[in-house]
Amino acid sequence: MTDWSALMARPPLWLRVALPCLFFVLVLVAWQVIVRTADISPLILPAPSAVLDDLRQHAGTLALSTWNTLLITLKAFVLGTVAGILLAIAFSRSRLLELAVSPLLVLTQVTPTVAIAPLVLVWVGIDNVDSAILLLAAIIAFFPVTSNTMLGLRSVSHDLHDLFTVRRATSLQRLFLLELPAALPYTLAGARMAGGMALVGAVVAEFVAGSGTDAGLAWRISEAANRLNTPRMFAALFLLGLLGVAISGALSLLQYLCLRRWHESAVSRDR
Amino acid sequence: MAETHGFRIEARGIGKRFSGQAAPTLSALDLTIGGGEFVSLLGPSGCGKSTLLRLLAGLLRPSEGTIRWVAPDGSSASGTRLPDIALVPQEPTLLPWKTVFDNVSLPLRLRGTARAAAAPRVLDLLRALGLEGREKSWPRELSGGMKMRVSIARALVTEPDFLLMDEPFAALDELTRHRLNDDLRALYTQRRPTVILVTHSVEEATFLSTRIVALSRGRVAWDLPVDFGPERAGLRDHAAFQALRGDIAARLRADQAALS
Ligand SMILES: Nc1ncnc2c1ncn2[C@@H]1O[C@H](COP(=O)(O)OP(=O)(O)O)[C@@H](O)[C@H]1O
Ligand SMILES: [Mg+2]
């Protein structure tokens, strides 16, 4: 069985994809069989086939909602990441600013989004729901980027700082040629978290704020819940899960592409 | 020294006490170095060699005394007229996200030299240091000795007036160290920068230097010229070399004995 244990020790990519897919299919089959044999009401637990039917019949609406949620998540992610990096840079330049402001940022993180949503809605405008959702999602997303980037900016070795000092580098050169590249692995790890949190933020915000002109998946779910349309809820949930996996996968890929040539975390070693 | 070209650095009455230290690391230290000398700093661990080097490099401020750069015409140098200094730390700290080429060209890039304009100089140096064909390698792909070569190439790329090195070869095996000593000696005779080298190896100091300065009790214990002339290939086997080496080792032992 040494072949098998070697395969498990360093599973190739196809195996990493195939195994969870296979397991998911098994779960679906078991689910289908149980629902059919136990005759469970579709209001409580619809069979996977029923969910699939609903997905097919309302493919257009659901695809549009998926697209809307994706769009707002991406916007929030970009907004949150850029703001997060800028904030980390500002904090690393000014200790005073960091000491004064960063404890308050923790406040935005420990206060549940659901709780601040109505306030943001009032500020941004009830007729501006999309912006409110975007802002809420970004508020959730920026924090891991800021805290990770700050850690990264601080982790630059003293010897490298000395090198830049002796060579009389300007502070901009130090920032762009030393500190930001050194922080990149940290920033990317933060961005991966931010991707997931932007999606959570977009969904939670839409639940609370309702929908603007373009309904997203959260809106579809609450709409289906109001009409006791359980298969539709599952269909929307399934799409939401897919979206989450896709975002996380894309960010992992970005991380790998940026770091593969030089960073220990991304370099595979012969053993 | 016969030639007095270039800058010199004058340290007068230097004292350095780190916060929380009972006795100062350096006290009332006087030292003038310049004009293309190759000075080796010797002394027991913890006697303040690295501290002195970092003071000279401007990375630390002295608690007492002054450090002054003096231009060839005898005037104090400041601002844009400061000499070009390069530092080789004990660990070859390369930027892991840059290739060998980009690491070596970094000091030139910091001055605004374009990548293409830097290329001939960088490739020349890589060849001189036995790193030909390695310009596209990443630091993690290099052995310790190769990383140190890259670090030295990076220091030399701007043709610095002052080259400060802190035990650069301490972590290398003897064969590699000899080879890098030979390379360093060759580069030194070609360009004649002023070199200040911290080392634990009496042999290395004797082979490379034109002057050896020993530290003890936070000041200069003794200061000795080394008159072997510029051509030093095969010098390690000569009786005169062995004799001086033995003499220096004996002086260092005497310093140690005086401490306890
Ligand atoms: N940044 C620092 N902070 C506090 N003490 C230091 C610092 N750097 C060096 N020292 C102290 O100064 C003394 C001399 O250190 P160092 O210059 O590194 O010696 P050497 O290089 O000769 O071995 C040591 O006792 C060390 O503990
Ligand atoms: Mg030292």
TrEMBL record, chain A:
What is the membrane topology here? Multi-pass membrane protein
Q: Where is the signal peptide?
A: none
Q: Where are the transmembrane segments?
A: 70-92, 104-126, 132-153, 174-191, 233-257
Q: Which domain of life is it from?
A: Bacteria
List residues of the ABC transmembrane type-1 domain: 66-255
Under PROSITE patterns, the record lists: ABC_TM1 (PS50928)
This protein's record includes keyword Transmembrane helix: yes
User: What PANTHER family does the record point to?
Assistant: ABC TRANSPORTER PERMEASE PROTEIN (PTHR30151:SF41), ALKANE SULFONATE ABC TRANSPORTER-RELATED, MEMBRANE SUBUNIT (PTHR30151)
Q: What family is reported?
A: Belongs to the binding-protein-dependent transport system permease family.
| The name this protein goes by in its record | ABC transporter permease
UniProtKB/TrEMBL annotation, chain B:
Q: Which UniProt keywords apply?
A: ATP-binding, Nucleotide-binding, Transport
According to the lineage, what is the superkingdom? Bacteria
- Which Gene3D superfamilies does the UniProt entry name for this protein? P-loop containing nucleotide triphosphate hydrolases (3.40.50.300)
Q: Which Pfam families match?
A: ABC_tran (PF00005)
Which InterPro entries does the UniProt record give?
A: AAA+_ATPase (IPR003593), ABC_transporter-like_ATP-bd (IPR003439), ABC_transporter-like_CS (IPR017871), ABC_transporter_ATP-bind (IPR050166), P-loop_NTPase (IPR027417)
Keyword Acyltransferase listed: no
- Keyword Coiled coil listed? The answer is no
Descriptive protein name: ABC transporter ATP-binding protein
Organism, by scientific name, is Gluconacetobacter sacchari
